[in-house]
Write a structure and sequence with these properties.
The complex is a heterodimer of chains A (about 350) and B (about 100). In chain A, about 55% of the residues lie in helices and about 15% in strands. Chain A is α/β, with parallel strands linked by helices and about 350 residues long. Chain A has two domains: about 1-180, no CATH class; about 185-350, Rossmann fold (3-Layer(aba) Sandwich), CATH 3.40.50.1470. In chain A, strands 1-2-3-7-4-6-5 form a seven-stranded mixed β-sheet. With about 100 residues, chain B is of the alpha+beta class. Chain B has one helix and four strands; from the N terminus they run H-E-E-E-E. Chain B has one helix at about 5-35; strands at about 40-50, 55-60, 70, 80-85. A four-stranded antiparallel β-sheet of chain B has the order 2-1-4-3, with no helix packed on it. In chain B, a hairpin with a 5-residue loop joins strand 1 and strand 2 (about 55-60). In chain B, about 15% of the residues are buried. Mean pLDDT of chain B is about 80; it is low at about 90-98. Classes of the chains: A alpha/beta (about 350), B alpha+beta (about 100). The interface of A and B includes residues 181, 320, 323, 354 and 355 of A. The complex binds zinc ion.
């Protein structure tokens, strides 16, 4: 009897798909459960955004969000022919930005810039949540349709990370609604902390400002996005314009930004190196690199490390302490590597929500 | 044959006990990770431009870094917000420096 059971079960285990079918059922139930969670995130995000827009006396907020989601994508330019690809990409990004801006101002004409930027961020987050949801549903449906247990297994193993990211975006709606600085603002905050409170900003590029200050005999120019609305501005273009206007008479450029940490690193760790510290898809970063190499000005990078969740939610104390450290590092670089009378540019990259 | 010595019976009991404890452990673990929702409190730090006096207060919606937030209680100079961050309960609360 026992022998017969053993033989039968070993046959089932080795020569049929039954174990995989069972696993498929288990993994797909895991995915289904998490998918419900993702859908809740999406709905909750939508609900919160609608409430936020209603509080701003926005007409028909639900329609505004629904019309935005799925639209306003950008098709990346042809890469086979790389000539002027940055110019083309920049053009497409600007066109999109203009379109989004127009989309919002069309509905409410006299909306102040800060509110408009906030609405744009809200729309963007809703769009991301919907997109995450759709991609997961896509692979789930494919897996079910073709009985693809490998796909279902991969999805089940990855879905916790995906759900964590989606939750971070959902929470970001609260953070951006609150208006306090987010983790990604580390670079902007570090730059702002170098500025004397008396100095007045000059607008260099759209939504990007320049401050002037001094540090132990060095002339310090600070470039950052114009606050306190949630915008990243055009730091590359601003830097390019500024360096050109000074005809390359700059001794050093220091960029400071938030950076994604590895799992083993602590939040708020500060590191420095060389290059343009900016998480950009191309145009802004290359503008910085080009202008620095054209004028052969050393380009330094200082980063404050944080997780993906921290970057898009209200700045935590650890990250803030990292910013304080980053300011010290920038000062050390400026004092150690330039002489008195030199001119240094510091570019604070990142979302400047809650930071003027 | 006495039941206690049947090897299959013992094996079955072992499997049942193992499965039950496995499920209990996974359930407990899930429950414990879901409970840790600590919102924390957002703090605005202000500093006097004149004498360097600093104070912290709870963030309100009009606050932003660089905003003039009032008069210094020590010298009457201007207070300016220098930082805003989220403090969670797990970190030790820090005293207000003055
Ligand atoms: Zn004072």
């Amino acid at each position: 009897m026992l022998i017969a059971i053993l033989i039968l079960s070993s046959f089932v285990l080795n020569f049929t798909d039954v174990p995989q079918r069972i696993q498929f059922a288990r993994y797909s139930s895991v995915v289904r459960r998490k998918l419900m969670e993702l859908m809740e995130f999406e709905e909750e995000g939508r609900r919160k955004s609608v409430k936020f827009l209603k509080d701003m006396n926005f007409p028909n907020p639900k329609g505004l969000i629904d019309d935005y989601v799925d639209n306003f994508f950008v098709i990346t330019p042809v890469e086979k022919e790389p000539t002027d690809i940055i110019k083309r990409l920049k053009h497409l990004i600007r066109t999109r930005d203009e379109a989004v801006k127009k989309y919002v101002t069309e509905k409410v004409s006299d909306v102040p810039d800060v509110s408009r930027q906030r609405i744009e961020v809200l729309l963007e987050i809703n769009s991301i949540l919907t997109y995450i949801n759709k991609v997961v549903k896509h692979y789930y449906n494919l897996g079910v349709k073709f009985n693809d247990w490998i796909m279902m297994m991969q999805l089940a193993l990855q879905i916790n990370q995906i759900a964590r990211l989606a939750k971070a975006y959902k929470d970001a709606i609260d953070s951006f609604g609150l208006g306090a600085p987010v983790g990604d603002g580390a670079g902007a905050l570090a730059a702002r902390m170098l500025v004397d409170s008396g100095s007045n900003p000059v607008e260099l590029a759209p939504e990007t400002v320049l401050y002037e200050t001094t540090l132990e005999g060095r002339r310090l120019y600070i470039i950052k996005a114009k606050g306190p609305g949630p915008t990243v501005g055009w730091p590359g273009e601003a830097l390019e314009k500024f360096v050109d206007s000074r005809e390359c008479r700059i001794s050093r450029i220091v960029t400071v930004d938030a950076a994604l940490k590895l799992e083993s690193e602590r939040s708020g760790e500060v590191a420095y190196g060389v290059g343009a510290a900016i998480g950009d898809i191309g145009p802004e970063k290359i503008a910085m690199e080009r202008v620095a190499s054209k004028c052969s000005v050393p380009l330094d990078a200082v980063v404050v490390k944080m997780s993906n969740e921290e970057a898009i939610n209200t700045m935590t104390k650890q990250v803030y302490e990292g910013v304080v450290k980053a300011v010290e590092v920038i000062k050390r670089i400026v004092l150690g590597k330039t002489k008195e009378g030199d001119t240094v540019v510091v570019v604070g990259v990142g979302n400047t929500l809650g930071i003027e | 044959m006495p039941l206690g010595f049947d090897p299959i019976y013992i094996l079955l009991i072992a499997i049942v006990v193992f499965l039950a404890s496995y499920m209990a452990v996974t359930y407990l673990r899930e429950a414990s990770t879901q409970k840790k929702e600590d919102k924390g409190k957002v703090i605005s730090l202000s500093k006097c431009l004149n004498c360097g006096y600093t104070s912290s207060s709870t963030y309100n919606k009009e606050d932003y870094v660089g905003r003039r937030s009032g008069k210094c209680p020590k010298c009457g100079g201007e207070l300016i917000i220098t930082a805003i961050y989220l403090e969670t309960q797990t970190q030790a609360p820090r005293e207000t420096a003055s």
